[in-house]
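Please review the protein record below. Tell me whether the encoded fold seems credible here:
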Amino acid sequence: MFASSLLLLLLKTWSYVGCNPTIGDVVVDRYSIPKLCPREVKSGDYVRYHYNVTFQDGKTFDSSYERGAASVGQTGQGRLIAGIDKGILGMCVNEKRKVTVPPHLAYGSLGAGDVVPPDSTLVFDLMLLDMWNKADLVVTETVSSPRDCKRSVKRTDFVRYHFNGTLLDGTPFDSRMRVRTHDSLVGEGWLIKGMDEGILGMCVGETRNIIIPPFLAYGEKGSGKEIPSQATLVFNVLLADLHNPKDDITVENQVLPESCARKSVAGDYMRYHYNGTFLNGVTFDTSYQRNNTYNTYIGLGYVISGMDKGLQGVCIGERRRVTLPPHMAYGEQGAGKDIPGSAVLVFDIHVIDFHNPKDSVEVHVTHKPEVCNLTSDVDDLIHYHYNCSLLDGTRLFSSSDYDNLQDTVLGADKVIDGLDEGLRGMCVGERRTVIIPPHLGHGEKGATGVPGSAVLHFELELMDLQKGVPEGYLFVWVEDAPLELFQAMDINQNGEVPIEEFGEFIMLQVAEGKGRMKPGVDPEEIIADMFRNQDRNKDGVIVAEELKLKVEEDKERMHEEL
């Protein structure tokens, strides 16, 4: 793959040469020629090649293969024997050829010590591995690029990329395509010079071939056993990530609700859904799969600093994309197996609701009747319609789901605190919306059908109101009680009041609007309880000495306690 990518990258024009030319007195047998040859050796080029050298009788006297190191030299400068200087011209990388060199273009009449006799014709079996010129530049080719490129690599940026590395002949020396990325600053000397240059201008998601001449790679020293001296390097690079150490978070793709009564601030408690991806679009986490919002305080360090900042200033119902540089996310260490070190994180957020622990109940009257003689208060029995939903519109409950109206006695701890408060001060026929923070609703744990820490939205309509009595009372006077209460109660004036007479008197006071019984309780039960309280000797009748108002009893009790 990479040999063909390289050849296509370098290819301007290519030729297939099937002849065996004679160059001067040098005979060339091109017995293995690659199909693509984007570049041929010219005078002045540097070459790296393997060879076997034999005499005409086939006896080998030298071999780079046996030494385990290819030969490196420059053509046209007299640094190679003259026959090789001529015979290597026009070679392609990965080409194999035999070059027959006459004595006068080899070691001549003197020979070479005891190894090469005088006037020896030499046969070189060459394989070209590499070629370059000092005038060469880093060569790049974009193999694929993303549709949208909002930012490209610049000097001082930090990049994470995958790569395959080969020599010019296609021999692989390193690969990080399937394991962790290579991470580095650009233009700060962390990379070889050619890579520093070749990666500039890349976009996240782009794949690029980069060919680097040896003097911009590892030069004469090479690198370890894999990269020999004076090797041209070919990289196939996929850019996975990009940021600058000076980056702040970025906010984009905002979708705002039609109205926004309030924006979030530090100290608020928020519930939100999110998708978390890397810059290349790969998802690493999502709250939607868990079917639960992520709940947290914001601006107080409970979440990574970039998210802490990105969640401030949002509206309930808002959607936004927040991109966090690694120094505002999980840094060089990453997080577990899913988030690598130095990763830029992208969060697509949907804010479900937020509140502040100091929030109170919000009441908005949507309709008020023209006539309102009574308003609801503590101890009153009320009947009402309601719809309950989350702030994102998710319906939870409705009185329309039941056959009867909802009823409650205000202040009796029968409904959540916020609803009890929101139902107070209403007129019959009044409609209102009430927003209840979770600490006045169902709290962190929630309830059946209600998520934990959820802000609740109620639509209320008061249908009926029965004024109540204070806690501990069964009956109260609306007007002043008769001065001679026992005489008024003793209808037949015989000095005794049985339960029938007592009940008739109480019901008369209620009917005339002079008194009021505790609502929501059977009147006969109230009368029986009141009679038992006054019949102190339990003889079935009340006499004047037994009859006392509850107010008087409370005063006596307080006096005794004091």
